[in-house]
Amino acid sequence: MVEISTSILSVKKGEENKTIFALEAAKTDYFHIDVMDGQFVEKNTYDKMFEYSSYIKRISNLPLDVHLMVEDVKKAIDDFLAVEPNIITFHLEACKDKQEVYELIKYIKENNCKVGLAIKPNTKIEDIYEFLPYIHMCLVMTVEPGKGGQTLIPATIKKIKQLKKYIEENNIEIDIEADGGINLATVDDVKGAGANILVAGTAILMAKDYKVIIDELKKE
Ligand code: DX5
Ligand code: ZN
């Protein structure tokens, strides 16, 4: 059964409390926290996402799935460790070299947090193979990072398939998270390709009944 990580990026102003309570009641598996610094991507959601995460921490036991779309990864790790996330995922493309990737992986794990590595649509899947034995999750962006409500890029489905094949052939235990443009029209392709954690923001937040859409997305 796949798990659903609901992105709270597009939560309506003033409806944060109601939405978070409703998502918990609808049994989302994670809250997906999209941290953007206005440099790695155009938007800046840094303070808002910290505020939302702190609030969720106070009212819910559901795990936080933090997705860092930032240039200064180390600073963001230090800041968001404060909300005790289940996992912190950073972008391969934000690192200057492989050594920095290994150092950040080690640093997150030393702080008792699971670690994920994210890649943008144009980054080759082979570029993360060497890091897979050391991380818990690979986040395959199925849209360009930076905003919600975009259309899934079909070419990214092939990358998920390739990754799934590689981890099976090499007996690597790792979660594959797909992120962006996931809805009832695209979910079957994403699941079929091998993703086992699906991020959805717009598809869930615009639904009348969160539980119905979450159950639909999870359906085998
Ligand atoms: C985009 C974010 C995604 C996005 C998902 O940069 O990483 O998590 O918010 O939202 P939807 O489901 O609307 O594409
Ligand atoms: Zn995300």
Q: What does this entry look like structurally?
A:
- The protein is an alpha/beta fold.
- It has a single domain (3-218), classed as Aldolase class I (TIM Barrel), CATH 3.20.20.
- The protein contains eight helices and eight strands.
- It has helices spanning 16-25, 46-59, 73-81, 98-110, 155-169, 187-193, 202-205, 210-218, and strands at 3-7, 30-36, 64-69, 87-91, 114-119, 137-141, 175-179, 197-200.
- It has an eight-stranded parallel beta barrel with strand order 1-2-3-4-5-6-7-8, surrounded by six helices.
- Helix 5 runs parallel beside helix 6 (187-193).
- It is globular.
- It starts with a strand and ends with a helix.
- The model has no long low-confidence stretch (mean pLDDT 97).
- Bound molecules: D-xylitol-5-phosphate and zinc ion.
Q: Which strands sit side by side, in order, in the main sheet?
A: 1-2-3-4-5-6-7-8
CATH class value: Alpha Beta
Largest sheet: 8 strands, parallel, barrel
Structural class comes to: alpha/beta
Total strands: the figure is: 8
